[in-house]
Design the sequence.
């Protein structure tokens, strides 16, 4: 059928994105004030209709994405970048969707301009008449009084958007969307470079509906963090580790989880140097460069070093997707009236386990048993899985990295997870019970169907091969450490 050709998938996905956008104008994360009559509540009936249309559009987009990926991995020759433009284009004029975080970004940029300590208080400090006051009214309840957990690089960008737009909600939101599109472009560039242009990599990373709705439509700064981090890794594996470390340092100054990349960039640099003591010492330099970037960025931004103490504020907000928070809460309720102390211990244990797994993966990369890019991607997935706060789009941290190396079935399992998580949040930014129900149906149904299809289909060039290829050779091979020869080997006097 034509609809399941690559051209049909392109049209189907574009129709889905358009439906999400149109539905979002009635059921999106609309501002409380400052919507200019464009982004305003339309009444309950129209809001429900818009939400239904947006969910139907999301379903069309996911179906198109899935079939498009099958065709690509079966050998179809396609210009994936063109398809990305078709699918992302309709979302550019949508109101904020699936999250109110963009209002926080605008308010925090305004706080910097108005002289408030963005690391000492939340958007509620903005007074009537100050820049960002309208945006602050639309900030989600948990975040109204929460200090910014973001680094100064992102705050400078938010500050620039507020200054250029005068803090007016509609143009400021569109300005933040330009930043999000720039982040998407960075991701495309880095994924293409790291994967040698394999279309399956862009399919899992950039065409991913979870990324489109939460980075392009939702404007989460995770996209910028991912783009800068991947760009830094790309430069590092190509031998330009100083520039790569600068990019990773900038990524850390957007969101701190990017710091995990410094471990693997350091290992890449050490192995390129030949290993040994000299290699290990040189492998520490990316961290030094990134630290220098952090200091310079903080001093240049003038926001102070308060970001060092606000990295844990997100963990104080309970999210149902956090396994350690849910487990800690359950255990705490079993042993006492106040579950918080037990919950805090379980959350910390989760982070300790995550660090241990990351270090183990780093050791395997150092030994040449795991590809460094794949090691980074899996490490980020582990970190997300064991974090005290997990949002659906956090999984993109690891998925976009793993995408450049995956072959066989594991990428498809990640695709099912992304498809399920896309349903967890409503276009309004809320997490209703039916969102979790839809997510569960997609996850269970998708995993069962995928397992059956993989089990009944012979290996081949159609993307359903049984091989998981966990150690695929990197697109830009990293040399193994050179072993120092013994004196006997150097003099040739051995037996």
Sequence:
């Amino acid at each position: 059928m034509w609809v399941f050709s690559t051209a049909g998938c392109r049209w189907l996905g574009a129709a889905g994105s358009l439906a999400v956008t149109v539905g979002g104008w009635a059921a999106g994360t609309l501002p409380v004030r400052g919507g200019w009559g464009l982004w305003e509540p339309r009444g309950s009936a129209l809001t429900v209709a818009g939400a239904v249309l947006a969910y139907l559009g999301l379903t069309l987009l996911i179906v198109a994405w899935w079939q498009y990926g099958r065709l690509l991995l079966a050998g179809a020759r396609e210009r994936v970048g063109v398809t990305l433009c078709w699918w992302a284009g309709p979302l550019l004029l949508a109101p904020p969707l699936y999250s109110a975080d963009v209002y926080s970004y605008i308010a925090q940029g305004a706080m910097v301009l108005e002289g408030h300590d963005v690391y000492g208080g939340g958007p509620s400090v903005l007074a009537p008449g100050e820049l960002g006051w309208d945006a602050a009214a639309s900030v989600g309840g948990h975040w109204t009084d929460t200090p910014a957990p973001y680094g100064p690089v992102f705050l400078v960008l938010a500050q620039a958007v507020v200054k250029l737009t005068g803090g007016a909600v509609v143009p400021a939101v569109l300005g933040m969307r330009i930043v999000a599109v720039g982040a998407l472009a960075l991701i495309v560039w880095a994924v293409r470079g790291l994967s040698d242009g394999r279309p399956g990599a862009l399919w899992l990373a950039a065409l991913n509906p979870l990324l489109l709705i939460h980075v392009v439509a939702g404007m989460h700064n995770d996209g910028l963090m991912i783009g800068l981090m991947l760009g830094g890794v790309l430069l590092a594996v190509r031998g330009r580790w100083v520039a790569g470390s600068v990019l990773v340092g900038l990524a850390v100054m957007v969101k701190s989880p990017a710091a995990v990349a410094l471990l693997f960039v350091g290992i890449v640099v050490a192995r390129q140097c030949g290993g040994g003591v000299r290699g290990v010492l040189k492998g520490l330099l990316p961290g030094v460069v990134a630290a220098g970037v952090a200091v310079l960025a903080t001093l240049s931004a003038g926001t102070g070093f308060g970001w060092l103490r606000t990295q844990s504020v997100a963990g104080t907000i309970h999210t149902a997707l956090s396994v350690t928070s849910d487990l800690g809460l359950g255990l705490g309720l079993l042993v006492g009236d106040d579950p918080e102390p037990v919950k805090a211990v379980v959350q910390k244990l989760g982070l300790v386990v995550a660090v241990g797994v990351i270090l183990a993966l780093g050791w395997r990369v150092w030994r040449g048993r795991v590809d460094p890019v794949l090691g980074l991607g899996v490490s980020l997935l582990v970190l997300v899985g064991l974090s005290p706060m997990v949002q659906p789009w956090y999984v993109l941290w690891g998925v976009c990295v793993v995408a450049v190396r995956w072959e066989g079935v594991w990428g498809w399992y990640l695709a099912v997870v992304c498809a399920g998580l896309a349903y967890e949040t409503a276009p309004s930014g809320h997490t209703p019970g039916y969102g979790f129900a839809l997510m569960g149906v997609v996850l269970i149904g998708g995993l069962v169907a995928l397992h059956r299809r993989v089990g009944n289909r012979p290996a081949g060039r159609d993307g359903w091969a049984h091989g998981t290829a966990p150690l695929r050779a990197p697109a830009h091979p990293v040399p193994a450490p050179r072993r120092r020869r013994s004196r006997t080997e150097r003099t040739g006097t051995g037996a």
Notes: DSSP finds 21 helices and no strands in the chain.
